[in-house]
Amino acid sequence: MPSLPTYTKCSQLGCKNSRSKLNTFCMDHGGKNYTVGDERTAFKSMYQSSLWKQIRQTQLSKQPLCQACLLSGRVSQANHVDHLFAWASIGKAAFSHNVWQSLCMECHSVKTGLEKQGIYRHYVEPLKDYTINDYQYVVKNQ
After folding, report:
1. 3-class DSSP assignment, residue 101
2. How confident is the model over 69-122, as pLDDT tens digits?
3. What radius of gyration do the chain's Cα atoms show?
4. Could you tell me whether strands 100-103 and 80-83 are parallel, antiparallel, or unpaired per DSSP bridges?
């Protein structure tokens, strides 16, 4: 009879801490646990707002293909509109005042992994990596 895997340790190389509930990393390496109550509801409701729906539709109309795939010579449809700088790390104002990029699901997952390391990747030619400290400068000059 099949059983569930029992991977209970962090996926970060050399780390022996227990993993979090929502991904394979411990809290020190970007792990996540359930956010309970009003905070989680407020977070999710931002993506249901008419402002976000308009931003998303505009971005996917301007750039329907994944920007990361195009840079590597592949063509795939974008189905995610990415905030260049994770708004949850900066504050609610960055939800609507940000730089947008169209990404496929796979590339969006890669970028999210980089964000856990403090790298905010902009898929333009040439490829640019930023830190959270670059937010004001990049958004102002975009």
Report:
1. strand
2. 999 999 999 999 999 998 888 888 888 899 999 999 999 999 999 998 999 999
3. 17
4. antiparallel
Q: Count Cβ atoms within 10 A of the Cβ of residue 62 and give its class: 0-12 exposed, 13-18 middle, 19 or more buried.
A: exposed
Q: State the Cα–Cα distance between residues 122 and 140, nearest whole angstrom.
A: 15
User: How does residue 39 score in pLDDT terms, banded at 50, 70 and 90?
Assistant: low
Look at the block and give the residue holding tokens 């990747």: 121
Residue 86 phi, psi dihedral angles, 5° rounding: -60, 115
| Beta partners for residue 9, in sequence order | 18
- Contacts of the segment 117-120: beta carbons below 8 A, 24+ positions apart: 117/30, 120/84, 120/85, 120/86
Q: From CA 123, how far away is CA 97, in angstroms rounded?
A: 18
Q: By the 8 A CB rule, do 87 and 130 touch?
A: no
- What span, in angstroms and rounded, lies between the C-alpha atoms of 56 and 50? 10
pTM of model > 0.90: no
